[in-house]
Amino acid sequence: MSRTFETVGVVGLGTMGAGIAEVFARAGLRVAGVEVDAQALERGRGHVERSTGRAVSRGRLDEAGRQAILDRITFTGSLDDLRDADLVIEAIPEVMDYKHALFTDLDRVCRPDAILATNTSSLSVTAVAAATERPGRVVGMHFFNPAPVMKLVEVVRTVVTGEGVAEDVAGLARRLGKTPVTVGDRAGFVVNRLLLGYLNHAATLLELGVATRDDIDTAMRLGAGFPMGPFALLDLIGLDVSHEVCEVLFQESRDRVHAPAPILRELVTAGLLGRKSGRGFHVHDGGGESAPE
Ligand code: 3HC
Fold this sequence. Notes:
With 293 residues, the protein is α/β, with parallel strands linked by helices. It folds into two domains: 7-184, Rossmann fold, CATH 3.40.50.720; 191-280, Orthogonal Bundle (N-(1-d-carboxylethyl)-l-norvaline Dehydrogenase, domain 2). It is built from eleven helices and ten strands. It has helices at residues 15-26, 38-57, 63-71, 96-109, 125-129, 165-175, 191-208, 213-224, 230-237, 239-253, 262-269, and strands spanning 7-11, 30-34, 73-76, 87-90, 115-118, 138-142, 152-157, 179-184, 283-285, 288-290. The strands form two sheets. An eight-stranded mixed sheet has the order 3-2-1-4-5-6-7-8, sandwiched between helices. Helix 7 (191-208) crosses helix 9 (230-237). The longest helix is centred in the first third of the chain and has 20 residues, at 38-57. The model has no long low-confidence stretch (mean pLDDT 95). Residues 51, 54-55, 58, 60, 121, 144-146, 148-150, 192, 195, 227-228, 233, 237, 241 line the site of 3-hydroxybutanoyl-coenzyme A. Residues 188-281 form the 3-hydroxyacyl-CoA dehydrogenase C-terminal domain. GO terms for molecular function: 3-hydroxybutyryl-CoA dehydrogenase activity; NAD+ binding.
């Protein structure tokens, strides 16, 4: 019999984690959202408030529905509040040492039958699972940015994933209104493996002076039917995340298409991370985009 999920935990309430918490709450699940300190918790709460507020202003949600979503999320600084969760998903920074430490703690705190999931973009789910005494119940559950909008979830199955676990998580993704695909534990899974090579290549074309930033963005929107051009998308994903994923993909594949373009590294070093910092390849002015000076 497939398991049911009523209470979930989300650890890390950055752009992805807050979006994932909202997705669960929208589907009627109770959510405990965990962050390291009060400031990070407030940022996470603000994210969900803004996102659901936008849905209200667009007439997609009424105020009572918004309040119900917010009421289903408990914001907490303590992992102990995850002890009743049926599933916990982690969306903390992409540093394996942090993930290892967190999964060791989650393994101790959470019910033995609970599923532990990681939203990692590129790190090894098998290595994360190995930090626990329950590797059979550790999977990848990879959402896409913006999580409330993008319809896909990659469910990552490892060689030690227990029977039925990936299927149950895929069922949960469907309940969230998403379409799951099951993928093996290889760096970048499917989407990032294909997408980041393309985005990195766009940065290389810019450096080579083949076309301007705006013309490359326009070309891919109007010529290939992508909803955003590559520089707008790099800014949405975050240049730090994009750079990090390219690095990991390059280390694993040794394919030059993933060797991070120098301009990507340069912008990250300068703190120009995309939408989240207000400027990346584009300047972002309250969500819109304009040309940099
Ligand atoms: N949070 C919540 N909702 C959002 C949102 C956000 N950040 N951004 C947009 N939306 C909602 C809007 O409210 C709107 O909803 P409505 O139709 O109910 O009013 C809907 O999405 C469409 O938004 P807009 O009309 O403002 O804008 P667009 O039609 O241009 O769509 C987009 C915006 C959905 C971001 C679209 O441009 C798109 O699909 N871009 C590509 C995004 C993509 O490829 N993401 C994957 C990145 S890879 C990744 O995340 C993996 C990671 O590991 C790196």
